[in-house]
Amino acid sequence: MENEDEMCDSGEQCSEESSDMENMEDVAIRRKRRRYRHPEHLKFPEESEEVEFDWALLRNLKRTRICTVWACKSSSDWWEQIVLTTWNDQQQLEMFRMKRKMFYHIILMLGPHVTRQDTNMRQAIPPDKRVGMAIMKLASPFSRYYIANQFGVAACIVRLATCEVCQLLKETT
Questions:
Q1: Which residues neighbour 121 within 8 Å (Cβ) at sequence distance 6 or greater?
Q2: Structure pTM?
Q3: Residue 62's closest CA among 37, 29, 33, 39?
Q4: What CA–CA distance (Å, rounded) separates 70 from 54?
Q5: How far is CA 19 from the centre of its chain?
Q6: Checking phi first, is residue 154 left (phi over 0); if not, alpha (psi -120 to 50) or beta?
Q7: Looking at the DSSP assignment, which residues form a beta bridge with residue 21?
């Protein structure tokens, strides 16, 4: 017997064909592991049933997505509670470089053009807020990020509102 070292589990001598089959199976397993690098596809012999259950739970959680609408919570209290209600004409003049009467005249003039509809995702920004963002950006050295924080909107909305108001003012004059 040339291959006395090769013994099968049952104590019988294994042939070269069975060892070749085992090598081919090992190669196939290695190929699968290379193909599926994601941990959920790999099966390791040392894993217990609890770990298998955790992987199955993870796989199911990953497959079932709960679609939700996300938005950053922001506060527009500065605009709604302070500027519109408590500021006097002098404070309005310092921040927006115009009196309250002129500010509301511009809102009346541009309001129908900048009004948007509410959607299922979010409420529309009121025209006074849009015009206020644009005028504050044009009248002050503050960055659009600061203005966005004060008004409780994103910085891109400040930019869009500013461009829109400037375009409308150019067209109406």
A1: 69
A2: 0.58
A3: 39
A4: 28
A5: 53
A6: beta
A7: none
